[in-house]
Amino acid sequence: MTLLSYSPTWSEDNRPELPLDGDEREILTAFLDWHRQTFELKCAGVPAERLSDKNIPPSGLSLHGLVRHLAGCERWWFRQQFAGEDVPMLHYSDDNPNEDFDALDGDVEAAFALWRDECARSREIVASSTLEATGTHFRTGKPVSLRRIMVHMIAEYARHNGHADLLREQIDGATGM
């Protein structure tokens, strides 16, 4: 079943309940995965041709742009900044740093597949590292911990899930999840 053909209802929301206690890794990982799943639910059931709608002027945001942006964030923070992998940036150029939102070329299903792949790679990196382990912060050259990156990504998803809520409501009136 693909994301775009699946239309969940509240009763089909199968996100696990967030833990009320546990160690730091368990809490951070659960919250980040919950927000990833929340974003996917907010996009589920939207016809492919509507995922690129920029329907909250003057904003240039769309669900398609958000999935491209979030794939880029996953790659940037976990693979490039933390793990030091030599992989190209996604949906970014010096000429247009907002390319993820502006240039909505390409297949929407492929954008979601790439995002899922980046999330899977991020999970592998998190699972194989301690929260105290560090990468190198791109602006300062100083160490940045996996803990800090995970907190940043939870905030990133929370912010963009709010955007996705507004975009989805404009498309078909659906809210929540």
Task: State the CATH superfamily name.
Answer: dinb family like domain
The proportion of residues forming helix, as a percent range, comes to: 40-55%
Strand content: under 5%
CATH level-1 class: Mainly Alpha
Give me the secondary-structure category: mainly alpha
- The gross shape turns out to be globular
Protein name: DinB superfamily protein
InterPro entries: DinB/YfiT-like, MST-like
Pfam family, one: MST
Organism: Amycolatopsis xylanica
Characterize the structure shown.
- With 177 residues, the protein is mainly α.
- The protein has a single domain (26-42, 50-172), classed as Up-down Bundle (Four Helix Bundle (Hemerythrin (Met), subunit A)), CATH 1.20.120.450.
- Helix content is 51%, strand content 3%.
- A two-stranded antiparallel ribbon has the order 1-2.
- Strand 1 and strand 2 (143-145) form a beta hairpin.
- Helix 1 runs parallel beside helix 5 (146-172), helix 2 packs parallel to helix 4 and helix 2 (63-82) packs antiparallel against helix 5 (146-172).
- The two termini are 19 Å apart.
Structural topology:
Layout: H1 24-43, H2 63-82, H3 99-102, H4 108-127, E1 134-136, E2 143-145, H5 146-172
Antiparallel strand pairs: 1-2
Helix pairs in contact: 1-5, 2-4, 2-5
